[in-house]
Every structure is written in C-alpha cells, then in structure tokens.
C-alpha cells in the first residue's frame, strides 16, 4: 500500500496499490473516465482507459457509477502527464488496472466536500464571473461533522492540535514536570461563579470540574514539585460567543516557585516559543492547507516573550482614547484593541500581561506583596485574545480562608483544599491554557468551533 500523499515522479512506471475516497468521478466516454481519490490532505487523479489487458468498458461503467465519498481501492501504474494537473495535490496520475469499491456512500450527500473546502476568495471570484457556488454554513458543517472533517483544512487543524499537545507534553517532560490526572467529578465549583454543570453523585450534590485548579495545587502539596495535565474542562457558559465552549481541553501546569512568579512566566515564554517554532518548522503542509481555505498572516512572536504590566496596558488603552476601569477586567473589545496597540508598538502578536488587579482574579490568586490591590497573576494573549490565565497561588491557609470569604465562597465547601496547606506547602504557581483557543488564534480562525472536533456549546450537544 502506498499513501496518496507519497505518490510522486520517483514512482513513475511503477505499480502501486492505494486506498482513498472517491472525491470526483468524471466520465469522458464509454472508454474513458477519471476518478479523483483523496486520502487525508492529498488527492490524485486515477485514469481508466479501456484496453485489451486490464480495463473493460464494463469497468469504466462501474467506476462512473460510484457515488462520491465511497471508499475505493485502486491498483495501477504511475504516469507523468504532459500538462500540470489542476485540482489535485499530486502531480502524477494512476493508470488504473484494477478498481474495487470497498464501501459505497449514499448517492445524495448532505455536504459536498469540494464545496465545504472552498475559500472566501473562490466565492468572491465566482461572484464576478456569475458562477453559482454552494456555501456550506457552520450549522450544516457541525450537523454533518463526519463529512465536514474530511476537508483538507479540517484534516490540518486537528493535526496541528495534536502537535500542540505533543509539544506541550515533550517540553514539560524535558523540564522535569510529571503528567497527572485529577478527578473530573468534584464536589463544588473550582473557579467560582455559576458556570458549573451540576449533577447527582449517588445522592450527593456534585459537578463537572471547571478546571483541575484545586487538585493540581493539592498535588504540589503532595510533594510532586512540577506537574501538568491534559484533560477535559467543563463550563456551563450561558452565552454563545466565538471563543467559549461548554467543554474544552485544558492544558494545565502547576509548579513550585523559588523566588518570584516570573519563574512561571519563564515556562510560558519558553514553552510557546518552542511550540511556535515547532509548528512553523514541522507543520508546513498543514499550515498551507489551512491557508488555502482560511488565509492568515503568520503569527509574529519575539524570541523572548514581551511582558507588560496591566497598568501599562491600561495606559496604552487610555492614550488611544479607550475608556477602561484601571482596577477592572478588560472586556473583549479592549483586549483586542490592546492586542493591536501592542502589535504596532512591539511588533508581536503574542505577549504576557502581568499584575492584574486582585479584584478581578479568583480567590486562590496571591496578592502583590507591595500593593494588595494588584496580584501576582497574568493572562497571555495571541492576536489580542486570551489563551492563558495564570498566577502565583496563596499557599498560606489563613490568607486563603480570608480571600475565599472575601470572594463570597463558603469555606466549608473547600475545607479539604484549604487543609492541604496546613502541613507545609511550598510557594507555587501555574497556568491553564485552552487548547482549542491556541489553535484557533495561531491560525487566526474566526470561531472556536472550527478547532473542536465535536463542539459543545450552549446550543449543541449532538453529534
Ligand atoms: P476566564 O473565564 O478564565 O477569565 P475567558 O476568556 O472566558 O477566560 P473572562 O475573563 O471570563 O475570559 O472574560 C473576558 C471577557 O470576555 C469578558 O469581559 C467578556 O467581555 C467576555 N466574555 C466572557 N465570558 C463571556 C460569555 N460567556 N459571553 C460573552 N462574553 C463573555
Ligand atoms: P481560566 O478560567 O482563564 O483559568 O481558563 C484557562 C484558559 O482556558 C480557556 N478557556 C476556554 N476555552 C474555551 N471555552 C471556554 N468556555 C473557556 N474558558 C476558558 C482560555 C483560558 O485562558 N484555573 C485557571 C488557570 C490557572 O490559573 O492555572 C483557569 O481555569 O484559554
């Protein structure tokens, strides 16, 4: 068996056996037909020409009767056409000797893959020439996700997602971090707020974990030093936005710190520079496939990630005429605006904003030693949108109790968490990354549903 993506001029005049999906079927005459087969992000043109030895008119008829998206095996010889082939990724043809249909798809597909793979530029061109092209809407794509996932851009998006997770694990392992799995069935909210999925745990009230927050800290109290987790995170978000899901993949990190929470920022810095370098170096084919359907500017990032203080960010926004509360959170618009200002001033799409006002951070965040109106915390942005929250944590049980009470949390519900800090707890900090957001923003995609295989949002639980 040869992969379609591996079919090239080096195999000219050689026999190959391939399996693919019939993307297009073009009858030319009773004696000739073309079938384009697709596998992953690659396509190749297969040619059936009636001859004495292998291909009968009956076989041509059989091939032209195939329904699109059927699974097909082809045995044939590789040939190099005189003119370049339009519309396939591979620049060789397969002269068919044998063709088998392994599994037939239904004749009327709810989504045509070629329509689903079109870029905005194709639609603009078609408008000028008067050509009628079919647009596939987001809901149709998600309703028939199995078909939608077959487009080259989608094949690429989830390969890149896998790569991001892979670099995350490899980098952290090389820095002495240990992978953990914390419970997802927990007794109460871990991030505060109402966005929790409640459930009945054998008669006890429980909920799905909003983050591994409390448990990753407890593992640090358990003496593990440096930990990470890749796992599902559940948020009962009410509103329908382009960047919130009700279930997403959290990439979480927690570590002891020796002197300053900037040690945590240093990990973010080196992890992401390594990740962006790796994606640019090793995912060229995938990035090209995404670019063909959703063109985007490559991400600009510095060798040493820019760190700005929240107060400096506020000042930049105010100087640009944006009204912001210096001790409040930034809304989505202000975050995006600051992203643009940072890009203009520092030539980067990726930066860390440090020292947030304490009032807008969760109860477990360490206040700044020099000014308790601020906190040892940070958010990280790509193209003006948040991908990470992180902070030094309160490791002193009395302060933790005071902070939880000040944030309106019933401390009885988190007693075992607070108690973990009574037996000698090291200073520590960490951060949480949203995997779908990293991929969405690295590729400048406009909706987080594009980077979730089967997105869960306030309106969607199937497929
Ligand atoms: P986190 O919840 O960890 O902070 P986030 O990206 O959801 O991550 P928030 O701090 O909750 O960010 O919110 C930042 C901004 O995003 C808010 O000020 C608000 O403008 C917008 N936002 C957050 N959640 C929602 C939502 N469910 N619907 C609409 N807008 C939202
Ligand atoms: P936070 O709530 O900011 O922090 O979440 C961390 C990161 O997760 C992503 N994220 C989301 N992605 C998709 N849909 C959502 N509804 C959603 N909500 C958040 C974002 C965000 O930056 N415990 C802290 C992290 C820490 O301090 O270690 C936490 O959960 O990319």
Topology at a glance:
Layout: E1 15-29, E2 32-39, E3 42-49, H1 57-64, E4 71-79, E5 93-103, H2 113-116, H3 120-129, H4 138-143, H5 145-148, H6 152-174, E6 178-179, E7 185-186, E8 198-201, E9 204-208, H7 213-221, E10 226-234, E11 247-256, H8 262-282, H9 284-293, E12 306-309, H10 310-319, H11 332-346, E13 350-354, E14 377-382, E15 385-392, H12 397-406, H13 415-419, E16 428-434, H14 435-442
Parallel strand pairs: 3-5, 6-10, 12-13
Antiparallel strand pairs: 1-2, 1-4, 2-3, 4-5, 7-9, 8-9, 10-11, 11-16, 13-14, 14-15, 15-16
The structure holds adenosine-5'-triphosphate (ATP) and aspartyl-adenosine-5'-monophosphate.
Question: Can you walk through the features of this model?
Answer:
- 31% of the residues lie in helices and 24% in strands.
- By secondary structure, it is of the alpha+beta class.
- The strands form three sheets. An eight-stranded mixed beta sheet has the order 6-10-11-16-15-14-13-12, with helices on both faces.
- The chain has 14 helices and 16 strands.
- The radius of gyration is 27 Å and the shape is elongated.
- The protein has helices at 57-64, 113-116, 120-129, 138-143, 145-148, 152-174, 213-221, 262-282, 284-293, 310-319, 332-346, 397-406, 415-419, 435-442, and strands spanning 15-29, 32-39, 42-49, 71-79, 93-103, 178-179, 185-186, 198-201, 204-208, 226-234, 247-256, 306-309, 350-354, 377-382, 385-392, 428-434.
- Residues 191, 211, 213, 235, 237, 244-245, 248, 250, 252, 386-391, 430-434, 436-437, 448 line the site of aspartyl-adenosine-5'-monophosphate (AMO).
- Aspartyl-adenosine-5'-monophosphate binds next to strand 11, strand 15, strand 16 and helix 14.
